[in-house]
Amino acid sequence: MKKEYRAADWDRYRMDMRDPHRELEPQEDEIAVVHAALDMLVSEGILPHSTYDHQKFLAHRAAVAEKFEIPWTAITPRQQRLIYAINAIAQPRHMLAAGVFCGNTFISNAGAAVGPGAVYTAQSLVGVEIKPEEAERAERNVRRVDPTGVARVVAADAVDVAGDLDHDLHLLYLDADGDAARGKGIYFDILQACYRRLVPGGIVLAHNSVNCAERLASYLAWVRDSANMRVSVNVILDGEGLEVSAK
Ligand SMILES: C[S@@+](CC[C@H](N)C(=O)[O-])C[C@H]1O[C@@H](n2cnc3c(N)ncnc32)[C@H](O)[C@@H]1O
Question: How many whole angstroms from 130 Cα to the centroid of ligand 1?
Fold first, then answer.
């Protein structure tokens, strides 16, 4: 069944993709809109609570702004806060992120466990990027905030990495844009490849649930079928969207 949380101003909230660190609204407004979305994820049984450390999040945001080389990103400040908060609350022991480009989306997830925004200890946080030069840049960026190596980026096809997992998976983040034939439809292939590893209660985050909804139609239909995923909510804080599903 289709469920959604939609911010009243989602279609007026806009970011320059080449200037992602600029503040778009007062902090308290950003906190409130993300909090409302988290509350819905709690009421749907996806998250146990909606509390996260705001100061730690700001430390994470500052480190990324200072240390990451980001040519462009579609991750808005609201989306960055939402993804960080979901990870800070769910605390996935093993996290896999597919299609991480320069690493900004990856660290929005992993930053809850490594670097100055860390609030828990994870076992493995792996970002996958198919273009070797982008994977190298992402790995360089990540090393600047996480000297431990718990968070790392590999150059590979995310379908293969997902299929080869030999451990439980607690959170999967999907952002790969595939090849000409599949485009973002590749989300479905990646999820299928590691579904058996996803633990009960495990979370899947799919970016672009709004602006790529057509290409993601099969994926969205599948995760919104409770025979496959227990519950799924389309969180619409900006024009990109994030489908949040739990097994
Ligand atoms: C559109 S970018 C994601 C950018 C991200 N939304 C942001 O705003 O920072 C998608 C990335 O997925 C990568 N990609 C495409 N197919 C992939 C695959 N099969 N495995 C891993 N990465 C893949 C592309 O090379 C590209 O860097």
Answer: 7
Domains of the chain, start order: 4-246 (3.40.50.150)
User: If you measure from the C-alpha of residue 131 to the centroid of ligand 1, how many angstroms do you get, rounded to a whole number?
Assistant: 8
Distances (CA, A) of 98 to 72, 103, 129: 17, 10, 7
CA–CA separation, 190 and 180 (whole Å): 16
The answer, yes or no, to whether any atom of ligand 1 lies below 6 A from the CB of 207, is: yes
Nearest atom within ligand 1 for CA of residue 186: 19
Are residues 213 and 220 in contact, defined by beta-carbon separation less than 8 angstroms?
Answer: yes
What is the atom index within ligand 1 of the atom nearest the CA of 104?
Answer: 9
Site of tokens 């389309």? 234
pLDDT in single tens digits along all 247 residues of the chain? 689 999 999 999 999 999 899 999 999 999 999 999 999 999 999 999 999 999 999 999 999 999 999 999 999 999 999 999 999 999 999 999 999 999 999 999 999 999 999 999 999 999 999 999 999 999 999 999 999 999 999 999 999 999 999 999 999 999 999 888 889 999 999 999 999 999 999 999 999 999 999 999 999 999 999 999 999 999 999 999 999 999 9
Nearest CA to ligand 1 atom 26: 101
